[in-house]
Amino acid sequence: MRIALLGAGSWAIALSVLLRKRGHTVSMWEYNPADAARLAAGRELPSKLPGIRIPREVLITSDIAEAANGAEIVVCAVPAQTMRSTMKLLASALPESRLRTITGFVIVAKGIEINTLMLMSDILLEVVPGLTVDRIAVLSGPSHAEEVSRDIPTTVVSASENSALAVKVQEAFSTESFRIYTNPDMRGVELSGSVKNIIAIAAGMCDGLGFGDNTKGALLTRGIAEMMRLGKKLGADPSTFSGLAGIGDLITTCISRHSRNRKIGELIASGLTLEQALSRMTMVAEGVETTKSVYELAKKHDIVMPITQEIYSTLFEGKNVRLAARDLMSRESKPEWW
Question: Could you tell me the CATH number of the domain that includes residue 136?
């Protein structure tokens, strides 16, 4: 099968290695021509995935039409806030007749677009001519690129309203170390992958403040409650948040040394401003922008999301992290509810 990866960050590279091992014909698109040339020549990205070699058979190009040429599946692996511009570029580079021959658009980005508050699948449906929801799938779950690229056992979900497409992605991406389940609740999977990054920022703040296991356990549990409330309001299946895309990905992102979002929270708790913390990152922490989107969604739909509220206040309103923790702990007492 011919598969095109849009994006050339750590996750795209990990997937290119995985897909090539599966015997697929793989191309990878990098927006910046100079970066694409360096990646094509060096076949690795030491700043993000040191020691991982991109197979010579993987085409690396800055020409999006060349990357997508003949592809049966297009993997959308750019950061969430650049998804719209990337898909517009793809739509302008290929005739609509060619776009219609792409049987599956697989979203691996995790986030919600600021300003529009749209999920990635909604953006694709709006931007790509002739695209229908039955040609979209989401691949998500606890899956750090650093581990997937080294064949460390990983399990994720392929979510689509089209069960045949979900299975097709499952079969195309599965290896002995990369196990995939299917799930019909694409919206719930997208929301899980987005909101868990906000909770991961909070987890990093807990680590930076020197809090303990009790705190982290409570944070993850109440974080799931917030994810579920938002999901139910937006039409997701509540059970999705108890699965790999929900609690599975949340646990991994909140405890892992690889987690960019956890790291951002830790840096801010150490006394850095958001700008200073971001300047120390080599990869995009999607949770920062997603915090804005989810905060606005919570206001729009009148959803109680106190953790999200406090993370928003610390990131964008300059609230002291310890004060945010105190305010969460001193909220009005109430029964536990979801």
Answer: 3.40.50.720
> What is the three-class DSSP state of 21?
helix
pLDDT tens-place string over residues 57-86: 999 999 999 999 999 999 999 999 999 999
Could you report the per-residue pLDDT of 149-191, keeping only the tens digit for each? 999 999 999 999 999 999 999 999 999 999 999 999 999 999 9
In the sheet that holds 154-159, the strands lie side by side as 59-61, 25-29, 2-6, 73-76, 104-107, 136-140, 154-159, 178-183
Structural tokens at position 79: 């950061």
Burial group, residue 8, by CB count within 10 angstroms (0-12, 13-18, 19+): buried
Q: For the chain, what is the mean pLDDT?
A: 96
| Count of the separate structural domains present in the chain | 2
**Residue 88 within any structural domain of the chain:** yes
Supply the residues annotated as catalytic: 196
Cβ neighbours for 74, distance < 8 A, ≥ 6 positions apart: 3, 4, 6, 68, 90, 102, 104, 105, 106
State the sign of the Cα–Cα–Cα–Cα dihedral 195, 199, 200, 205.
positive
- For 333, the token pair is 């007492």
Domain that holds residue 238: 192-329
In the structure encoding, which two tokens stand for residue 159, read together?
């979510």
